[in-house]
Structure formats: C-alpha cells, structure tokens
Amino acid sequence: MKSHAGDTPSMAGVSAAIDDLLEHEVVQLDADAAAASIAALERECRRIQAAQVELLDKIDSSGVYSADGHFSARVMMRHHAQLSGAEASKRFGVCRTLRDLPGIAEAYRSGMVGTDQIRRLSRVWSNPRVREFMEACEQEFLAAAVAMEFPDFDSFCGQWEQLVDADGAHKKAERQWQHRNIRPTQDFNGMWSLSGRMMSLDGAEFHEILSRLADAERLADIEAAQAEHGDEWRHHLPRTSSQLRYDAFMTLVRRGAGAKPGGGTAEVVTNIVIDQQSFEEQLALLCGSDPGPVIPAEIAAAIIDGNRFCRTADGTRVSAAEAVARALTDQVRRVVINSSRVVIDVGRSQRLFTGSPRLAAMLQGTRCYWHGCWTPATKCQIDHIKPFREGGKTNPPNGQPACS
Predict the structure, then answer these.
(1) Residue 237 burial class via C-beta count within 10 angstroms: exposed 0-12, middle 13-18, buried 19 and up
(2) Is the pLDDT of residue 272 over 50?
(3) What is the pTM of this model?
(4) Taking the C-alpha atoms of 214, 215, 220 and 223 in order, what is their torsion angle to the nearest 10 degrees?
C-alpha cells in the first residue's frame, strides 16, 4: 500500500481495504456472485461519496476554508481534489440539499441511495418554490429513490416538480418558447456542429421521428448484410449508430426541403399519454381558473403509483402544460387515461389508432419489462406475461412490452 502524507488512521484503513479489493482475484465468478459484488461495491462507493459531501459541509459550516486562503468551501475542495468547476458545484449543491433532507442524507451515508439519485434531488431542490414541499415529502422521495430504476426516478422528480409548481411550469414553458433555437456552426476544419434548445413536446416528437428513421436505415443495412454475408451479417454492418442517426437526420432535412427521398418512409405516430386529473388541471389553468389546492405528498404518492403522468409511449417526459395547449391547436394526439387505467379520450390526428389491444398493452409500460433493460416500448413486441400455451389470454392485462 502506498502511504500518503497526512493520512489519518481511519483513512489508512480505507486505503488498505481498497488495496485488498483491487488485488483480490475472483477465481470463479458466476452471475449471482457478480450481482452481489456489484451491489456491495456500489454501496461502499456511495458511502465514500457521502463522506466527501459531509466533509464539504463541515468545511463550509466551520469557515476553515478562509484560513487556507480560499473564497469558499467549494473552491477549497475544487483546488485540493483537483476537480472541475462543474463537479465541485454539483457536490456543493448536494451538500446544501442534504442539510434540508436529513433522512435522505442518512440513507446516502448508509449506501441505500445512489449519487445519481441524490444529484437529481439536488436539481429539484434548486427550485426555491418547491423546497419547503420537498421537506414534507422526504419519505416519498426516499422510497422512490430506493425502489425505482434511474429513468423512472428521473421522471418522478420532474413530474412532481411540474405538478407542485404548476405556475412555474407555465412560465418555464413560455421562456423555453421564447428561447427556442437551432444553430449550425462550422469549425476551422470545415465540419459543422448543431446546437440548440427545443421545447419539451417538440423535442420528444423530433426524438421519436429521428429514431424511427434511423431504425429504417438500420433495417436496410441489416437486410443488405444478410443477403451478402448470411449468418455473419452482424460483422458486416456498414454504419454505426451515430452514423445512422446522422444519415436519418439528413434524410429528414432533405425531405423537408422537397428533395426526392433516398429510401422508404417511416410511419411515425407520436402519442402523448396523460392522466385525466393532470389534463383537467391544465385545462383549468389555461382557462384562467383555479384547479384547486396542491398537496405535494399526494402528488408524490400518485406518481409512484402510476396515476399521474405526462409522457410519450416510450416514457419521455413532456410538459403537461405544453402538451394540453398544443393538443388543442396542433396535430398532436393526446391519450387521456382515468384512474382505472382506461383510455377515456383520444385526440384527433392525421392517423387513427389500429390494433387497440396492442396499443393498450404497450402503454402499460415505457420500456421492456425485463429488469435492467431500457429498450423503449415502441421498439418492443408485446409478450404474454402468462404464456399463451399455459392458458394466458391475448389481452392488455396479460401483455407487456418485451425486446427481442
């Protein structure tokens, strides 16, 4: 073990344990042992990261950073830990957040909650209009952080903040509309980069259209490779995923300019799925009415139970305010679902629903139902939960999105 100047006995013990971990060789690692090792190592990493945040908190509250000639605790940690400015700011944001959420701080310290979840909570806490409500909903946030996979927890936090701060969400949507922008920039090598900011619903629609076009391009590559190379086709695909997205984007641009399409078309239907209560609340706000009092804890519980949502079929979260406003004026299809999970309203669009049982089954989940698989529902087939050969019925309650 390499010793470091200034190491305390406890830090020396941590270093020794890490040395032992890095030098330890697992002879026969089966799947169960691998899963257990992943969980155990992640838990200890979280505890170390929690200790970093606690140290930052002590430095900040004691003011010892000024004795070292630094302007703040954040600057002191950035310097001595050789961090980027962004990383130092994230740690300090977490530090301030956990001061108001002691239960979550303790869960982080014990390794129950991950750093990604803690940082997502910090982003919610940075909204001053919802801070006091976060304290009241701390147990709901903790339960969600422990039980949910990160994409679901990310969506939970966004939905909760939007519903609790409905007025702020409307103002944010207005600001986003004013600051919408797409800008191509050419560098000194002649390459172009594309940057910009898109509205919530525009971005979700663009993402789905581009994904469908890229899938069509990929399918053409696969068919050509299979025809030429047979079973070895996987080793002969001519384009990477990033190249497929680029080519799909250029196809989209050229079609928009009226150029002759270079290939087949992709059928694209974007469904915005929203619960009945959120839909009615947003309508009330648009009409200048008061939708009623906001109860943050009830909102948190409803999101966790799957009763409050505004998303695409793949789970991409969209602004409820924007979705409802656009559904009244644009060719955007809304799917309103009541508390019994029954579709009660389907907005008009250029296409009608077909295959109702398949659509209903698909909308029950946003991704493949297998744990850890994040394949979007729209790229899945619908699989029987109880196998058909064992008497399982071909109806929505017995169907879930499943990747190939």
Answers:
(1) middle
(2) yes
(3) 0.63
(4) 150
